[in-house]
Amino acid sequence: MQKISKLFVGLALSICMLSSCNKYLDVVPDDVATLESAFANANEAQAYLFGCYATLQALSDIRRNAGFTTSGEMMFPYPLQDQTTLGGNGGDAGFSILRGLQNSANPLLNYWDGYNMGINMWQAIRRCNIFLENAHIPRDLPEYQRKRWEAEAKFLKAYYHYWLIRMYGPTPIVDVNLPVNASIDEVRVKQQPVDSCFNYVVRLLDEAIADLPPVIQNLAAEQGRISSTIAKAVKAEVLATAASPLFNGNRDYISMKRKDGTMLFPQAYDETKWQKAMIACREAIEAATTSSADLYQLRLSGGIVHMSDETRRMLTIQGAFVDSWNPEQIWTLNSQFGWQYMASPRVTAEAAANVFAVYSNLSVPIGQSELFYTDHGVPIGEDRTWDYKNRYKLQAGDEAHKYYIKQNYVTVKGNFNREPRYYADVAFDGSVWFGSGGLDDNNPNYINAVNGPAAPPDQLRYNATGYWAKKLVPYQTTFGQNSVQQNYSWPFMRLTSLWLLYAECINEVNGPGADVYNWIDKVRERAGLGGVVNAWAQYSTNPNKPTTKDGLRAIIHQERRIETAFEGQAGWDLRRWKELQNVLSTPLQGWNVFSRKTEGYYQLRIAQQTVFGVRNYLYPIQDFDILANPNLVQTLYW
Locate the RagB/SusD domain: which residues (predicted)? Predict the structure, then answer.
């Protein structure tokens, strides 16, 4: 346990160091010496605005993101007993929710009070309100600049409210700060109905959009600040969330009401919400296109000996996420990802020899690996040409797969004949690993998880399933005696995810048709797959699936989960779709990773039991807050 403590203390420090880029967005004001000094001039006011950004930057830490830690895409196999080792918050808190440890006495990922890897969003909103109330004070602040800064603060305030809505459903709306002499009744705020909360966020975003620049021109000085294109994309996501089953006609929460009788969830499904989301998606895509957003084009570093077309496609798919600030990334945060050594396998003897180089604890369950399509672009359980029944049988790497799987290395049949995104995003025993010092795909590094460098050296530094999130580790990163990381900033939204969100909205409004197929196929084309209609017609056991609204909805949901895998998005999508309970209804499975023989290694085992019921879709408010404010009502089922 001391080793784990040292590990995560080191991780916390590394995240702080990696976040030093663009420190102007990481300032947290001391709430505050005096408002007069905080807004004495334009420079001081801008510093306070950057303090408003600080919470946003902190959200790039994936440990804090329920969309990542509670999505079922990833598990952390070693629950920490000492919850004080990670900045005093317990860094595996999010992962622990899937172990059934969520509670209302001391909630995990508590964004209401700021405990257990949560951040106090009310404090963040308070800072935004202070800025908006005082931005008029500096006499040397030009009017055009003041409007832009106020728009940024409005966006941040909207986004912090939106984060709370996604977690808690109905929340109070804090449009202005209460005065210091506010009465007890005024302080005891009430939750507002879900629709009112969403409407408030959208109104703030609309106000912000009017005064934000479409793109950030001065990247050296302003990279990471909010543009109107980002705000439009977020508005599209907010409206799609409001239209989704969790918040639109959800009968599981229909009885939730305030103590004064006000109903907090809509009582009936409203299809017009999808119409609004569809329009917002179209406007966001148009804004992104006007701002030169486009699919990522691979940018290579030196030292490459040989690269096949297959490897080039894999690196292009991966690079769209890890090559920071590229045109495909609509919204990227400044803070950098600090967990590469958790996501990577040990692919060289040098990496295995350095006890602190690679831990590999971020483990991808087999169920997530099986989400990816076959090479025909349909689910593995639907492809009539793919041997689904025998996918766990052993098979040796062959010439046809030599850029994906080490030739003659024995792995499971399920790793063959898969789509390029599978090989770009997921690594497994026997898979080729282009990078980590090996830049020749005719003689590449590969993963030997049975009895080679990637095999678990102990009960601490191991991958519990035998699958790694390759997507999260750039090929330039090398682990060993002197590790060198290719650091990257965390993207919050990419162009392809916006395209698929638009396709989802179109299908909900109009059903299947050429328009919705077009947006799906644009994503699939980059992934090296044929069009959705033709792929299902030629290879699926359910050839008419894309021609029905329900069938196409299922396709879009799977396509979106594949395209945004490991990006901190799937957990939020699965919640708003009310599908996370289905995903987590079975335990997270992996291979028998401590076996040193191939036949023993490839035995299915339960890597982690999961606990997720209806009540877990929304988070509990801490019991103390309910007692302190009798106007609050606890989230239903808690």
Answer: 328-638
Mean of pLDDT values over 264-291? 98
C-alpha–C-alpha distance, residues 44 and 489, integer Å:
27
The pTM (predicted TM-score) of the whole model is 0.94
Nearest to 237 by CA among 446, 49, 492, 5: 492
Report the distance separating Cα 395 and Cα 393, nearest Å: 7
> Which residues neighbour 380 within 8 Å (Cβ) at sequence distance 6 or greater?
370, 372, 373, 374, 386, 388, 391, 414, 418
Ranges for all domains in the chain classified under CATH 1.25.40.390: 2-242+618-628
- State the Cα–Cα distance between residues 591 and 604, nearest whole angstrom: 5
Give the per-residue SS3 of 141-162.
CCHHHHHHHHHHHHHHHHHHHH
Determine the Cα–Cα distance for residues 114 and 464; give it in Å rounded to an integer.
30
Q: What is the CATH number of domain 2-242+618-628?
A: 1.25.40.390
Task: Work out the mean pLDDT of the chain and round it to a whole number.
Answer: 93
Transcribe 216-276 into DSSP letters: -S-HHHHTT---HHHHHHHHHHHHHHHHSTTTSS-GGGTT-B-TTS-B-S-SS--THHHHH
Tokens describing residue 35: 């408002």
pLDDT in tens, 355-405: 889 999 999 999 999 999 999 999 999 999 999 999 999 999 999 999 999
DSSP E strands: which ranges in 495-615?
A: 588-591, 604-608
Residues contacting 146, CB < 8 A, separation 6+: 135, 136
Beta partners for residue 589, in sequence order: 606
Query: Computed from CA positions of residues 622, 624, 628, 631, in that sequence, does the dihedral angle turn out positive or negative?
Result: positive
Per-residue pLDDT at 506 exceeds 80? yes
More confident site: 302 or 198: 198
Q: Which residue has the tokens 């909010």?
A: 226
**Is the separation of the CB atoms in 506 and 518 below 8 Å?**
no
Please tell me the predicted confidence (pLDDT) of residue 376: 98
Alpha carbon of 567 to those of 180, 318, 325, 358: distances in Å?
A: 41, 11, 15, 21
Q: Please state, in angstroms and rounded to a whole number, the distance separating the CA atoms of residues 516 and 505.
A: 9
Helix or strand or coil: residue 86? Answer: coil
Residue 403: what residue type?
A: Y
Q: Tell me how far apart the alpha carbons of residues 199 and 210 are, in angstroms, rounded to a whole number.
A: 17
In three-state secondary structure terms, 469 is: strand
Give the integer Cα–Cα distance in Å for 114 and 562.
Answer: 32
User: Does residue 405 contact residue 397 with C-beta atoms inside 8 Å?
Assistant: yes
